[in-house]
Amino acid sequence: MTLASPLARAAYGQREAPVRTARAQEYDLLARCTQKMAMAWARRKEDFPQLATAVTENLQLWCALAVDVADKGNGLPAALRAQLFYLYEFTAGHSRAVLANRASVEVLVDINTAVMRGLRGDGGDL
After folding, report:
1. 43-83: pLDDT as tens digits
2. DSSP result, 47-60
3. What pLDDT does residue 43 have?
4. Cα 14 from chain centroid (whole Å)
5. Orientation of helix 22-42 relative to helix 48-70, angle to 10°
6. End-to-end distance of the chain based on CA atoms, in angstroms?
7. Apex CA 56: angle with CA 91 and CA 119, to 5°?
8. By 3-state DSSP, what share of the chain in percent is helix, strand and coil, each rounded to 5?
9. pTM for this predicted structure
10. Positive or negative, the Cα torsion across 68, 72, 78, 83?
């Protein structure tokens, strides 16, 4: 066995990670944001900045989704795009209420969970 053989196996023998679809990436981002918000909500009295960070990150994700569905080149049906944009608008307003300590993150978690069910194909119709 030559030195090149182990090097070749190391370079060419490893399998590449599977290509992730945009849908799977969106699901993962929503899942992470949802988990962060739920955990931060449970600790809001001890660590409000953590809650503010989690809610802000969720809003940033929804802003990116809104930009995507507002694009004329987006392939989703127009009605679904409109519903998703409305959810962004609602999420933005509700996030402000959470940050002002006037509302719970519960509805934001519910919205994210419903969208994740839709991305998985589990009947998460909006």
Report:
1. 999 999 999 999 999 999 999 999 999 999 999 999 999 99
2. -HHHHHHHHHHHHH
3. 96
4. 30
5. 150
6. 60
7. 55
8. 70, 0, 30
9. 0.80
10. positive
